[in-house]
Amino acid sequence: MLIIIYIINLMNILNKKYFNKIIDANPNIYYSYTTIDNLVVLHIYNPNNETFKLSQDNRNFYEKLANMYYSISDNSDNGCFNLEHKLVNDTPYLTIEDVLKSNLSNTYTFILIDIVNDITPLSMLGISENIMWGLCSNFIFRNKGYMTKLLLHVLKLIYNKKLKDKTLEINKLKLKIVSINPNKNKLIKYYNKFGFKINNDTLNESYLEMNLII
User: Are 93 and 99 in contact (CB under 8 A)?
Assistant: First the structure.
């Protein structure tokens, strides 16, 4: 009974109190959600790869999200892609809008959120044309299993054809790890656990493809 009441309260919080602090008013970007334990997985379906628009209501959430990718609010390199971006680009990201435009234009974006504690993004990933991009966890909450929760949840949704984009296929999923990533070998071993295997290894990057036996 307590679990049921908690889930109902969680959905009420998301629908009535917090949803306007996350969504973009663009009618061509679609939002939905699922749940994992006491957390919410926000689904952003952006079939036309349109740019997000920040507002006074949603800016706080997307500032947190942008800083997960690339720390621009301080001088740290705690963002998932600070090092990679600096090594392959001459110009750093200067604004939140720059980060979002570059990293939130996927057909699908999935964000694991602690909705109760100040709508905090924990982990996220994007998918376009069966390629996973920008898998990232909040620096403050790394090594707590949040990416594993999110990735398993998304793979299950794809396997069971629960998403709007029916062209997503579990055995066509791919992801890329660049060689300049200091954690490259560790990441390859991590993704191996989910069924991703290297199918092309070059000097600059390794391509992994889902090899799930069904």
Answer: yes
User: How many Å from the N-terminal Cα to the C-terminal Cα in the chain?
Assistant: 36
Nearest CA to 80 among 204, 183, 201, 195? 183
In whole angstroms, give the CA distance from residue 190 to residue 176: 13
- pTM: predicted TM-score of the whole model, two decimal places: 0.86
CA distance 110 to 90: 29
Residues 122 and 146 sit within 8 Å (Cβ to Cβ): yes
Distance (Å, rounded) from C-alpha 154 to C-alpha 33?
A: 11
pLDDT (tens digit per residue) in 143-175: 899 999 999 999 999 999 999 888 888 999 999
Q: How confident is the model over 94-133, as pLDDT tens digits?
A: 677 877 877 788 899 999 999 888 889 999 999 999 999 8
The span from the CA of 105 to the CA of 18, in Å, is: 23
Between CA 94 and CA 46 the distance in angstroms is: 24
Determine if residue 118 is left, alpha or beta; phi over 0 gives left, psi from -120 to 50 gives alpha, anything else beta.
left
Which residue bears the tokens 């909450």?
A: 141
* 46 close to 108: Cβ distance less than 8 angstroms: yes
Q: Which amino acid makes up residue 183?
A: N
